[in-house]
Design goal:
The complex is a heterodimer of chains A (167) and B (790). Chain A has helices at 22-29, 85-92, 102-115, 121-127, 139-157; strands at 2-7, 10-15, 48-51, 54-57, 70-72. Chain A has 167 residues and is an alpha+beta fold. Chain A folds into two domains: 2-74, Ubiquitin-like (UB roll) (Roll), CATH 3.10.20.30; 85-157, Orthogonal Bundle (DNA polymerase, domain 1), CATH 1.10.150. In chain A, strands 2-1-5-3-4 form a five-stranded mixed β-sheet, with helices on both faces. In chain A, β3 (48-51) and β4 (54-57) form a beta hairpin. The N and C termini of chain A lie far apart (42 Å). Chain B is α+β, with helices and mostly antiparallel strands and 790 residues long. Helix content of chain B is 28%, strand content 23%. Chain B has a seven-stranded mixed β-sheet with strand order 3-5-1-12-9-10-11, sandwiched between helices. Chain B has a five-stranded mixed β-sheet with strand order 7-15-14-13-8, sandwiched between helices. In chain B, α14 (513-525) packs parallel to α15 and α17 packs across α18. The longest helix of chain B is centred in the C-terminal third of the chain and has 27 residues, at 553-579. The radius of gyration of chain B is 28 Å and the shape is globular. In chain B, 60% of the residues are buried. The chains are: A alpha+beta (167), B alpha+beta (790). Chains A and B meet through α2, α3, α4 and α5 of A and α1 and α17 of B.
Chain lengths: 167, 790
């Protein structure tokens, strides 16, 4: 069936089988392979994207359900090659090792900040229970999200988020 | 020949952020499943739903007729391929070689674990392949199955392989049994314990994946595969399976999304896909679903052991006897036989001077996924056993856990254990003291009293481990049964403008080799890290190497260091000519070639250009160019050590155990990058804590069905599972390699489990509880006690 998806600010018209999952539409059709699949059962969160600014697990929904919604993937965060403050915080705090869960962690981290603008470490630990990482033991991910939240708050009071934060 | 610039800051040994991060952060990582070949097809496997069954017949007609199907292949189509090999020969005590149960790439007559492949469908899309796989009809003759290692070893158990009566793959021993007997006879105390090391599923978040294409014009097989050792796999595929000759076989392991050992093995699915690509003449891709990963990735641990520790009146260890049943699963995996033998029994001396040790290991076939290396691979099983025995001895003799360890520590190095290894270096007492300080061991009674006031049971426990890393000295390994050498290699290429490319035989699957190697090379050459790129995981570019597993990156990094030194030696000779001074007077430091005989200097970049311009020095005497390769075969393993302390609280109403403090004092020798090392410890500890409190792989004992086949059933550690860690590092450099490194990747998974269980036993005032110490198990103990007390 034909469907329209708006991904990272670009409108796409796709012709896909009805049963196509959103994650497969992103990866296979749009070749946005930064969104990963780790479990197929909505447990690991590697496939987390934003739908109208809210984190969803893209292996859990059909592509057609995202029609008419704004989808943001990990590829949509950096602006003109400058990392988003949350991405930069993961780099500085060594919040990634193999990198496979990282896009989902960053997208989930941003959703935590949306709901808790200055989250403490305990809040982040509790809120991150829908994302699995097997490499880091989570500690540096938690630090990175806290630091990313601080950087975003600082940027919001001054310049636009992300500005001047890139490498 | 300018004035010398300020010397660059040293990078090696400092916490430099990683060079490889950017692509991962931006969603531009390059994993196998991200790639498509032109003309791509997809594979889906038909798998056994039974733990043990004979195949009467397979009807593929409906599947063949399904839309988009290109081929349906069954075991008969793979009959030309030899069985899956086990790469490590173990001999039983009586000298008999291990009994290898035949494992076909795709089963033909009989299946022995749930998930064993029996057919593969190749189709135009992933969905078409899956849909058609459901249409393959297999007529099964179910057979009695056995999943538990003790049940499989018992008389009358269902047998998996005709050539392995009693399901016994081998009955092996190490150490001096008579010496242990004699020491026990004269001992003051003996403590005995039977304990289980629970079966674990590695669960790298990136599942296994392969994409293979056959080029009929070049007669070349081109493979993308997520793997820890692509060069080793090329050898396997060429020499064992004859899929293509080595020079016409390319294996690329691009970004690898975690491995923990599970991606170091040779698996039937990957062989089948590579073979099928040649057969159908189209590229074939397969990515495991998570349940397929649970069913077919090699599992870890699964030991049932009985041990006795003999002590003198003062709590000094006299002897240790261990009798282990090790589940092998349905078949011997790539290094399955190595793990419960030379990776396990050799570590049973721990940090202690134990005069006599004997270990008997019986390797038992079970109707489960094969068992192989998983983070630590034999060493966690040994450390857990030793440290539980020490914990129990401390309890029985009423000696403080720290004190009983202190009395028995090895204090002089090198130290030859009674079980094969020679420990290279260490300062175990310093590690113990560091851990006690980090954990505030002395302050525990006050914390316990405070917890008791809140109605909580608080306990503290310790674990001191030694592990063997940097595998390995090839001659020793060959003597012990290895099928291949385990040196590593690196080639360092200096470009004309002074940038550097390192072709690394080691292969990162998350450890950050691209950064650590660049730190090393940048310092050696006195150039910025950004001028160094590290190439890994492509057999067309890197011809020699043995991959990354067993915390052995120090081997490849040592090869890199040696290659750099060879380049500097040659560059000094060139510099002598260019500076018109004797070569032996040329010094190289901080990126500058200089000689006391002249004020002139040459930068590294100027020298690199001159080496390629090839004028100003006699090329009949010194060849142009600046390239060097090194193969480093270490003279011994490295022996990292550490002391971990866990502090826990139990809610007596629910039995829930909460880790409230965890301290780790580790000695990994020289650290290349403390930030990366801390990350490795944190990740390893999470897996160790997971084993102790959460994770366990459960097969139904009657049917051998896997009960924990998804993240909904298998409890993975999550962000809120554990508290912040307190980490400390000692440093006794290893004499086994030129960098003094020891290895850090597995330490957490080795040290943490016993520390936690010792703490749980301490809180509950009991001799033992098996892992994982779930709320249910703890609650049952407390409830039984409440009933007893009426």
């Amino acid at each position: 069936m034909e469907m329209r998806l708006e991904v990272n600010g670009t409108a796409h018209r796709l012709d896909l089988p009805e049963r196509t999952l959103l994650v497969h539409a992103l990866r296979d059709q749009l070749r946005l392979t930064g969104t990963h699949i780790g479990c197929d059962t909505s447990q690991c969160g590697a496939c987390t994207v934003h739908l109208d600014g809210v984190a969803v697990k893209s292996c859990t929904m059909l592509a057609v359900q995202a029609e008419g919604r704004r989808i943001t993937t990990i590829e949509g965060l950096a602006k003109d090659g400058a990392l988003h403050p949350m991405q930069l915080a993961f780099h500085i705090h060594h919040g990634l090792q193999c990198g496979y869960c990282t896009p989902g962690m960053i997208m989930a981290g941003l959703d935590i900040v949306r709901r808790h603008p200055r989250p403490d470490l305990g809040t982040i630990r509790a809120e991150l229970e829908g994302n699995l990482c097997r490499c880091t033991g989570y500690h540096n991910i938690i630090r990175a999200i806290a630091a990313g939240a601080e950087a975003m708050a600082a940027a919001a009071t001054g310049e636009r988020p992300g500005e001047g934060q890139g490498q | 020949m300018n004035a010398p610039p300020a010397p660059p800051l040293r990078k090696f040994g400092t916490a430099v952020p990683r060079l490889e991060d950017r692509r991962f952060l931006m969603g531009a990582g390059n994993y196998v499943d991200d790639q498509l070949f032109p003309g791509q097809t997809w594979a889906a496997f038909v798998r056994s739903p039974h733990g043990h069954a004979a195949i009467r017949s397979i009807d593929t007609r409906a599947a063949r007729a399904a839309p988009g199907v290109i081929a349906v292949l069954t075991g008969a189509d793979f009959a030309s391929l030899p069985p899956m090999p086990c790469g490590w020969m173990i001999h039983s005590r009586d000298g008999e070689p291990m009994r290898v149960g035949e494992r076909r790439v795709v089963a033909t007559q009989r299946v022995r674990y749930v998930g064993e492949p029996v057919a593969v469908v190749i189709a135009e899309s992933r969905d078409a392949a899956r849909d058609a796989a459901d249409l393959v009809e297999v007529d099964w003759d179910e057979l009695p199955a056995v999943a538990d290692v003790a049940a499989a070893a018992a008389d009358g158990a269902p047998e998996l392989h005709a050539n392995a009566p009693g399901n016994l793959a081998f009955d092996w021993e190490l150490g001096d049994s008579a010496a242990v007997e004699a020491a026990m006879a004269r001992s003051a105390h003996c403590v005995t314990l039977t304990l289980r090391n629970n079966r674990l599923v590695p669960n790298a978040i990136e599942p296994r994946a392969i994409n293979a294409r056959w080029d009929p014009v070049e007669e070349k097989l081109d493979i993308r595969m997520t793997h820890q050792n692509p060069i080793g796999m090329r050898m396997f595929y060429a020499a064992v399976y004859g899929l293509a000759a080595e020079h016409r076989l390319r294996i690329v392991s691009p970004d690898v999304g975690g491995g923990f050992g599970s991606k170091a093995h040779n698996y039937p699915e990957e062989v089948a896909v590579a073979f099928a690509a040649k057969l159908v003449g189209r590229p074939v891709k397969w990515t495991a679903e998570r349940t397929e990963a649970f069913l077919t990735d090699a599992h870890g641990r699964d030991h049932l052991s009985t041990a006795t520790l003999a002590l003198d009146p003062d709590g000094r260890f006299l002897a240790l006897r261990v009798d282990t049943l090790a589940a092998m699963g349905a078949y011997l995996s790539s290094t399955g036989s190595l793990i419960p033998t030379y990776m396990y029994a050799t570590m049973l001396s721990g940090q202690y001077a134990i005069p006599a040790i004997h270990c008997r290991t019986r390797a038992i076939y079970t109707n489960t996924a094969p068992v192989d290396a998983y983070r630590g691979a034999g060493r966690p099983e040994a450390a857990y056993l030793v440290e539980r025995m020490v914990g129990l001895a401390a309890r029985r003799l009423a000696i403080d856990e720290a004190e009983i360890r202190r009395r028995n520590l090895i204090r002089h190095f090198p130290y030859r254990t009674p079980v094969e290894w020679v420990y290279d270096s260490g300062n175990y007492e310093a590690g113990l003291d560091q851990a006690l300080a980090l954990a505030d061991w002395a302050g525990f009674p006050a914390r316990k009293a405070e917890a008791a006031a809140r109605g909580r049971l608080r306990g503290i426990g310790m674990s001191a481990y030694v592990e063997a890393c940097g595998i390995g000295p090839s001659a020793i390994l060959a003597r012990l049964g290895a099928g291949a050498g385990m040196w590593d290699s690196a080639e360092v290429r200096v470009h004309p403008a002074g940038t550097v490319e390192v072709l690394s035989g080691a292969h990162s699957h998350g450890q950050g080799h691209a950064t650590a190697i660049a730190q090393l090379v940048a310092d050696r050459f006195g150039i910025p890290m950004e001028q160094v790129s590290v190439i890994q995981g492509d057999t067309d570019r890197i011809q020699a190497g043995t991959g990354t597993y067993g915390s052995r990156a120090s081997v490849g990094m040592s090869a890199t260091a040696r290659a750099c030194d060879r380049i500097i030696e040659k560059a000094k000779r060139i510099a002598g000519h260019l500076l018109a001074v004797p070569a032996e007077t040329v010094d190289f430091a901080d990126g500058l070639f200089a000689s006391a005989a002249t004020n002139a200097t040459l930068s590294f970049g100027e020298l690199a250009f001159a080496a390629h311009a090839a004028s100003g020095f006699p090329t009949d005497e010194i060849e142009p160019g600046l390239v060097a390769q090194s193969f480093f075969d270490p003279p011994n393993f490295t022996f990292p050590s550490g002391v971990h302390v866990a502090e826990i609280e139990i809610d007596p109403e629910t039995g829930q155990t909460e880790v409230v403090g965890f301290a780790a004092a580790d000695d990994f020798g020289v650290l290349a990058n403390p930030m990366i090392v801390e990350g490795q410890v944190m990740g390893g500890v999470a897996q160790g804590l997971g084993q102790a409190l959460l994770e366990t792989c459960v097969y139904d004992p009657e049917t051998a069905q896997l009960m924990t086949a998804s993240f909904m059933d298998y409890a993975m550690p999550r962000a809120d599972s554990f508290p912040e860690l307190r980490l400390g590092f000692g440093c006794t450099p290893s004499p086994s390699n030129p960098l003094g490194m020891k290895g850090c990747g597995e330490a957490g998974a080795i040290g943490a489990p016993a520390a936690v269980i010792n703490a749980v036993c301490h809180a509950l005032d009991i001799d033992h509880i098996d892992m994982p110490a779930t709320a249910e198990r703890v609650w049952e103990i407390l409830e039984a006690r409440r009933r007893e007390q009426g």
